[in-house]
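Deviation from plan, reported transparently: heme C complex.
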Amino acid sequence: MSEQDELVGRGEAIAQAACAGCHALGGADESPHPDAPALRLLSQTVNLDVLEARFADASVSDHPDMPEWQFEHIDAAGLIAYLKSVQSGSEE
Ligand code: HEC
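Because the crystal trials were delayed, the predicted structure below was used instead.
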C-alpha cells in the first residue's frame, strides 16, 4: 500500500467516525442531515486546501449545526486526502 493510500484510508476512517452522521460519504446519494452537502461535492463550494488550513485551526465551519472539532487530535492531512479522493466533477 502506498503512503498516499494509507493517508486516504486514515482520512476515510475519520470521515466515517466524525462526518458520516450528517454528510453523505463517498458515492452515497443523500446526506443524513438535509442541509449538509455530500462530501464528494465539497470542492464545488469550498477550496479543499483552504479547508485543510481550517481543520488545522479547528474551525471547520461557523454553521451552528456543525460541532466544533478538536482537530489537533485529528489527522487533517489524511482527512483532506480522503476528501480529495472522493470529489466528483472536479479535476483536483
Ligand atoms: C452534526 C452534523 C454535522 C457533522 C457531524 C459534520 N457536519 Fe459538516 N456541515 C453540516 C451542515 C448542516 C452543513 C451545512 C452548513 C451550511 O450550509 O452553512 C455542513 C457544512 C460543511 C462544510 C461546508 C462549509 C462551508 O464553509 O461551506 C464542510 C467543508 C463540512 N461541513 C465538512 C465536514 C467534515 C469534514 C466533517 C467531519 C469531520 C463534518 N462536516 C461533520 C453538518 C455537519
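Residues 15, 18-19, 21-23, 33, 35-37, 42, 45-46, 51, 60-61, 63, 65-67, 69 surround heme C (CB under 6 Å). We consider this an acceptable substitute for the interim report.
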